[in-house]
TrEMBL record, chains A, B:
PROSITE patterns: HTH_LACI_2 (PS50932)
Superkingdom of origin organism: Bacteria
Keywords carried by this UniProt record: Activator, DNA-binding, Repressor, Transcription, Transcription regulation
Designated name of the protein: Catabolite control protein A
Native species: Limosilactobacillus coleohominis
SUPFAM superfamilies named among the record's database cross-references: lambda repressor-like DNA-binding domains, Periplasmic binding protein-like I
Function: Global transcriptional regulator of carbon catabolite repression (CCR) and carbon catabolite activation (CCA), which ensures optimal energy usage under diverse conditions.
DNA sequence: CTGAAAGCGCTTACAG
DNA sequence: CTGAAAGCGCTTACAG
């Protein structure tokens, strides 16, 4: 017994109106006589008619679906952003196609391609830097893309983020007060966010304190607890007595690793972490941290995207798009907890 | 300058074949002469033709998209499951529409409705219990649904999970060895997973040890660190000296709360947590835990769903569907760490 | 192995 | 305020 799908055609004939009229009431078009509307609404209700979004998407060229590429859904930082994105998306009646890129360029490309194939109306890109292939995909499409919570090598893309340079500078400066050698622990040194923001911020802090920074104090690590934990020996060997870490998982790993090596935090080693996810308060000692409006970064990104998507619709060919500065920099802060003196 | 979309029609005319033939080569249909295939493939490449998945979805009634409802994307437990789901989905060329339900029935209903409107081929439902409305949605659709990582009040739904009753029983029994009063901390007492699995398991453990359980030792809490932290006083007041908690965030909260109240874990209070997410190893002391194959629960759910989706296609009306037992129970275990003696 | 044609379920000008 | 008709970009029998 195949359930016979009831379509706009069924409704139209039951209500003795045209499909166009049914379409109008479904879409809230005001140009419908109240009586007609009422009649149609009744039939819709009686038949429990549900518009087919796929058909609508094909006809209207709008899918009310956005693509969200996330490096790792199990990383609290990105998960918080995703929560903000989802809330706003839902508010605007958008669905989100979420796909993990594993921070891998090959995956990211596949993911983006498949999102375009599905005709998403926009994309939120979380991740550091974009491969040439992905950049090409973005450029050859008319679909707006916004970068959330990072800064990439593609500066034609609008981005919502904090001032990573300043944040890094501030954290490093704080640490420099009580310590001669402050380590910086980040992802890839060559990624844009690190090369152009965090490392310069780190250097500036050294300059501010009239000291020369030592590049050997800059460590690369993937965003995982284990890598942080494994870093202990190498960091200690440099004589560093403090560290700023861009990722909370790594920071938690380092913190616990230090403890297990008998190094006391903050007495013998100070730590400031970068994202203030819940991890920061779960560790003992709790970690002092740069604070970020994580949820808001996601929410603002999605809001910006909705704006771009509707402009896209109107402006269409008005390629004026002086896309000068659709970038938005949110405020960050600092919270002192137990991992600093 | 609207970019002129290039469609299957463009390819067909450039290659001097019919759209049907282009469709065949795109879909890997073997009934195409090698020469023809080659010619078409060349044109596709030259034009950089990308099939429109929306049109395909409308015509074929398959969207290669699945809906995933998740109570809270920022909860490590669900995020780990989602990772497994996404990996397998990607492997099978499915995209996933991910939506947070906030563990709220109203939201879940909206979310599910909008997934059906988007014509998803299947749904993975994470969450405890399903409202009547949602159940009705599920039943009135032909779309297969699988429940991942819980057990719900709708036992017509296939589910992938562990044996929560046994796990709870084992954990409680362990704790009962050194403690007279062992608390059980769960979500809602009336949810199916708790009423039919965890509470009975808890009681059995008491029976096994020839003791009478005290229902006042069963606490309800939402899955958050803060609630766990706030629970300390109430739990201590009962005289309990140990607890099994179903959620790691709550457990971490309790653990830290205990510490801040000067109660030593495990010396004065033993803790076993339920999900073995990364939190369990980040806290100090690290938490002993029931272990679960989190990623696999997600992966197996998705695999099961793909199976159901293709059966659905074939069986179609063969409603035989003795849906006897598509349930799959994965193995759990236990890992001793530092929160137990 | 290949093509012509209908159809998927909507929306969108266009007329009136 | 309403309807007839074309069209969105594919797939799917059906014929041959």
């Amino acid at each position: 017994m195949e359930k016979q799908a009831i379509t706009i055609y069924t409704v139209a004939s039951e209500a003795h109106v045209s499909m166009a009229t049914v379409s109008r009431v479904v879409n809230g078009n005001p140009n419908v006589k109240p009586d007609t509307r009422k009649k149609v609404l009744e039939v819709i209700k009686r038949l429990n008619y549900r518009p087919n979004a796929v058909a609508r998407g094909l006809a209207s060229k709008k899918t009310t679906t956005v693509g969200v590429v996330i490096p790792d859904i199990t990383n609290d930082y990105f998960a918080e952003l995703a929560l903000g994105i989802d809330d706003i998306a839902t508010m605007y009646k958008y669905n989100m196609i979420l796909a993990n890129s594993d921070a891998d360029d090959k995956n990211a490309l596949q993911v983006v391609r498949s999102m375009f194939a599905k005709q998403v109306d926009g994309i939120i890109f979380m991740g550091h830097d974009v491969s040439d292939d992905v950049k090409a995909e973005f450029e050859s499409s008319n679909v707006p893309v916004v970068v959330a919570g990072s800064v990439t090598n593609d500066d034609s893309l609008p981005v919502v983020r904090i001032d990573y340079q300043k944040a890094t500078q501030e954290a490093t400066s704080k640490l420099l007060k009580n310590n001669e050698k402050v380590a910086l622990i980040i992802g890839s040194k060559s990624s844009t966010i690190n090369a152009q923001q965090r490392i310069p911020g780190y250097q500036k802090a050294y300059e501010d304190s009239q000291r020369q920074y030592d590049h050997r104090l800059i460590f690369e690590a993937h965003d995982s607890y284990e890598e942080g934990y494994a870093l202990v020996d190498r960091i200690l060997k440099t004589g560093a007595t403090a560290a700023f870490l861009s990722d909370d998982s790594i920071a938690a790993g380092l913190l616990n690793g230090l403890h297990d090596h008998g190094v006391k935090v903050p007495e013998d080693f100070e730590i400031i972490t970068g994202n203030d996810t819940k991890l920061a308060t779960i560790t003992r000692p709790m970690m002092s941290s740069i604070t970020q409006p994580l949820y808001d970064i996601g929410a603002v990104s999605m809001r910006l995207l909705t704006k771009l998507m509707s402009e896209d619709q109107q402006a269409a060919e008005a390629d004026a798009e002086q896309d000068g500065n659709s970038n938005v920099i949110l405020q960050h802060g600092f919270v002192e907890r137990q991992s600093t003196k």
